[in-house]
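Figure 2 data, in text form.
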Amino acid sequence: MVALDRQEPNDKLLEQFGRQILVPGIDEQGQLQLSKRKICIIGMGALGTIASQYLVRSGIGEVHLIDPDTVEESNLHRQINYSLNDIGKYKSEISQNILNSINDVTTISSFPTTFEEYLKEQAIDHFDLIFDCTDSHQNKIFSSKYCKKKFISFVSISINSSDGIYFSQNYKNQNKTSSCFECLFPQSKYDHRCLNSAMIGPVAGFVTSLACTKIIFALANQDLRLKSEICLIDLLTSDINKLQLAGIKCPH
């Protein structure tokens, strides 16, 4: 991203995000950076709904919400944007309607389709970050490879029972030999999806909060300093194991 001249936030920005601006590592210039950032959130399930709330409330300038699914009753114990009145409606559209009332800084668009279909209609080479919150291993591999090809920063999270995985690659500042999601998590014979997995809502909340914190600090920095790393999270033992991704060459 082209370096920006130092600017002063307007009164509205100071009023809405004053407490966030006080955080070391964000400050007034970081909040201005956030207001100019553009991101996609893929998947509006347990992870994506929580992510959308935190990231929109942080004051990011533009957010695209992508999910082809409709709300089901079994979603409601962990997917915080929906209620019984939303069953049968598109998740992305319901989420947009809810999030639009949070602030007037963020422009929100919804796309009730897959990421692959979305890319046929949308040019997102200028976006700053893609946040994969889907429950499909195949989708994670596809979106990671796309971001690597287009030099877009990429974050992916997933949960199963009381465990979580955080994966990030700063493709914006790396080359095409950098590792992709498939390098670390090869495609298995069966595409595991969380619709058959045990889970409780707080696990989704913890893993997504970790990811959103890292994303907000990265986007607030003019150089988008997102670390390339994996975090393996066990909520029952409170263990978080971090692995750095430097030096891994991608064969894909």
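Caption note: DSSP finds eight helices and eight strands in the chain.
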